[in-house]
Request: fold
Amino acid sequence: MPSTWDAIVVGGGPAGAATALRLAATGRSVAVLERSRFDRPRVGETLAPLVRPLLEDLGVWERFTGLHPLPSWGTRSVWADPAPVEHSHLVSGYACGWHVDRRAFDRMLADAAASAGAHLWTGTAAVGCRPDGDAWLLACADGHAVRGRLVVDATGRRAGISRALGAGRSTFDRLVALAVRWDGVDVAEEQYLLLEAAAEGWWYTAPLPGAGMVGMLMTDADLCREGGLHASAPWRDRLSAAAVTAARVGAAPLRSAPRAHSAASQRSRRAGDPRPWLSVGDAALSVDPLTGSGVLRALRTAESAADAAGHLLDRPGSAGTVVARYESARDDECARYLADHARHYGDVRRFATPFWRRRRPRRRPDPVRSDPSAPGATMWCREQVDEEDDGARDLR
Ligand SMILES: Cc1cc2nc3c(=O)[nH]c(=O)nc-3n(C[C@H](O)[C@H](O)[C@H](O)COP(=O)(O)OP(=O)(O)OC[C@H]3O[C@@H](n4cnc5c(N)ncnc54)[C@H](O)[C@@H]3O)c2cc1C
Reply:
């Protein structure tokens, strides 16, 4: 094991694993620090058809099909009008998207990075990051430290490293997902994603491999708090008002209260910091689950990040230019995302409720906060937060 790695990737989700895989495949020494052991359920289980060329490019398509993902034939949405509209994936050119077990998917990618030569430390949370001569020293929760010439922040929407290194953060909304999972559901006829607009937000339901179904109410943090929507009874009550979704999941009982996940749109951005570190995936830009593109974006930015990392390692003197170019591409992506986001939400005019009024196009999305510790900036109530979602406190 080298005393100084070329790159340390913090976070072994899709963005971190794909970045590590690409760097390792070009002969760089790479360590991945992943705080979980991929032993808890993860959200984000519907993959758009365009994931296929990205997985093929990473050389993991066989591993992916080995997970026996469920083909997803398309999306049914009850959005601008109360009548459902169907969008078939056949027009994508790839026939279908996929419903996956995200825990297994993420594990598969991390294992592929390890097979490519990256050193994967699971159960290892980075809790500090500081310059150490011409490199970085990453402190881990178990007390050991790892040294690397370059750091990649792939900690997901918490953007732990970026925040620790002083990056600014723009938070565009306070969306939360209140998720439940049903087991023992016959999903043979249910291989599609259903989105349904409702007064307090919108519903997402999707099948899972192995006879399961996931259902989420997406709403704003304050609306969730005011309506107590994270408790089973109000959640169920709102579900029964979403006719198409309610018909889909029938009377399936809730085994536990809904679990809250931050789903806020955020951009973490460094300004004028030429040091060799990059953020990738959700750590750079986390998007609304409505886009269904989080994993795609994670895999795409991993390609750009690995490319930029290669330049930073080969020509440290060019760091300012490389970093500026990389951040500028993320800014462009963010601007496109915000325009699409405003258009999609603007299509829904049938509810005059706070959730939808806030998203009317006349109100331009603005970077509402740059202080990540502001109440509600990332999550409305820390006690409710899924442990997987909330690790910002790990990094100071
Ligand atoms: C409710 C919800 C539903 C979604 N649905 C979809 C969907 O259907 N389709 C889709 O494509 N996308 C979806 N997304 C988005 C998608 O899940 C993310 O965009 C994607 O997971 C981003 O990948 P990532 O690797 O950047 O971050 P993550 O997947 O969040 O991975 C970050 C990793 O970093 C690790 N980590 C964090 N902090 C530390 C630390 N200090 N030290 C070490 N490790 C650390 C975490 O354990 C985790 O493994 C959804 C998101 C939400 C919130």
Summary: The first strand starts at residue 5 and ends at 10. The first helix runs from residue 14 to 25. Confidence is low (pLDDT under 50) at residues 365-396. The chain is about 30% helix and 25% strand.
